[in-house]
Write a structure and sequence with these properties.
By secondary structure, the chain is an alpha+beta fold. Helices cover 64% and strands 15% of the residues. Strand 2 and strand 3 form a beta hairpin.
Length: 201
Amino acid sequence: MFRGVELATDLVAIVVMACAVYFPRHRRRDMVFAYIGLNIGVLAVTTALDTATVGAGLGLGLFGVLSIIRLRSSELTQAEVAYYFVALAMGLLGGLSLDPRWAGPLLIGVLVAVVYVADHPRLFAGYRHQVLTLDTAFTDEAELVNRLSDLLVAEVKRVEVAKVDLVRDTTTLDVRYRLLTSEERAARDAARAVERIGVGR
């Protein structure tokens, strides 16, 4: 039996997720096409398998192989991987016969809502992650943290040193940090100014 509501819900949801949620936040046009194309392809194949004698396990196995190939063929951020699997999950939910009938559309709506909230720019907005190479070989962690704090104008939360090259005088590291607000920056600058005056005396 044709499941118009489930199919329409999935098509509307994937367009909303890709064009109204993902693209304004990440600005990758190629991934919009990838998410919509993946979702529609999975939806079509799942619908066909659901009405055929082929087991659903075979279909899920095929989707797993396709997803591995896609993920290995391009460098994606962790957020883009999450969008990728949400698009995959929505295609599966839209193509399967679920009981009760409203379960599929409801779960698809929940997935879009979760993506919207979890990837919202205001959620942990000041937190950043970078891999850096500094032109100084730091062997003192406290000195390194102070240098990163000044360089990034941030509160350093975690530092993992990958390599210290004493010959080339470089340090390669992974740093997680929180950007300082304007008030925090002003307070820090004032405290340092007072400290310099005290040292000058």
